[in-house]
Amino acid sequence: MDLGITGRKAIVCAASKGLGRACAMSLATNGVDLVMNARGADALEATAAEIRERTGRAVTTVACDITTAEGRKQVLDAAGEVDILVNNAGGPPPGDFREWGEAEWIKAVTANMITPIELIRAVVDGMGERRFGRIVNITSSAVKAPIAELGLSNGARTGLTGFVAGTARAVAPTGVTINNILPGRFDTDRLRGNFEFNAKKTGRDPAEIAKNAAAAIPARRFGDPHEFGELCAFLCSVQAGYITGQNLLIDGGSFPGTM
């Protein structure tokens, strides 16, 4: 399927690894030029080089912390006019809420709520003037089914979800869509880190924890980041122009609800 986005320009945040990398690769494969961000310059440059080689698209890299005002300015200045924004930032660490103070909560909310809102605010009106825009926020399945040890993520990402619910409908007449993708368990460094956390807490083998976690998913496996990237690319397509304000689960059937 031709997604109709060849020649468009996208910002993809936290794009050197994991789900952000998968989104960048899928967009470039479908003809999109990229401005990619991550904090680690080496991993970012390696990913960018691979994308250029595989797709032939223009890729600009900005190594910075997107959760800071300075970092966001660097990315936005490098991008200029953009048609697609993929918001993504590393989730806060797992833990016991009794151990988190105000500083931990502010850091989590800044990274996973305020940062995407600020980036949306910076690009949405320009997109609307050009009558095309696609904004995709990478959140978490924990928005629908909270995970106790991920309380910081549960809270911050749910706040973003509420913001998007209203804003997406307000800007829909301008040709801009805003959607959230809610990943379940994907084979990423983040998932492996969570298994290590639980292993230390329980004294169990992380490999055993991973095996049991995969067995509990109806699909009986973890997600492949490529699958996530392809969903992101479709939501950025011309065909997806009637999808907005939605929270799309991609979790192998883990969420047990009917809605």
Short description:
This protein is an alpha/beta fold. The model has no long low-confidence stretch (mean pLDDT 94). 42% of the residues are buried.
Topology of helices and strands:
Elements lengths: L8 E4 L5 H12 L3 E6 L2 H15 L3 E5 L5 H11 L4 E4 L14 H28 L3 E6 L12 H21 L4 E8 L5 H14 L3 H10 L9 H11 L11 E4 L9
Parallel strand pairs: 1-2, 1-4, 2-3, 4-5, 5-6, 6-7
Helix pairs in contact: 1-2, 1-8, 4-5, 6-7
How would you explain this protein's 3D organization?
The protein is of the alpha/beta class. The chain is built from eight helices and seven strands. The protein has helices at 18-29, 41-55, 69-79, 102-129, 151-171, 189-202, 206-215, 225-235, and strands spanning 9-12, 33-38, 59-63, 84-87, 133-138, 176-183, 247-250. The chain has a seven-stranded parallel sheet with strand order 3-2-1-4-5-6-7, sandwiched between helices. Helix 6 (189-202) packs across helix 7 (206-215). The longest helix has 28 residues, at 102-129.
What's the count of strands?
Answer: 7
Give Rg in angstroms: 18 Å
Q: State which percent range the strand residues make up.
A: 5-15%
Note the overall shape.
Answer: globular
**Poorly predicted parts:** none
Query: What is the count of DSSP helices, taking H or I runs of 4+ residues?
Result: 8
How far is it from the N-terminal to the C-terminal residue, by CA?
Answer: 28 Å
Mean pLDDT: 94
The strand order across the widest sheet is 3-2-1-4-5-6-7
Helix and strand element order: EHEHEHEHEHEHHHE
Could you describe the largest sheet, including whether it forms a barrel? 7 strands, parallel
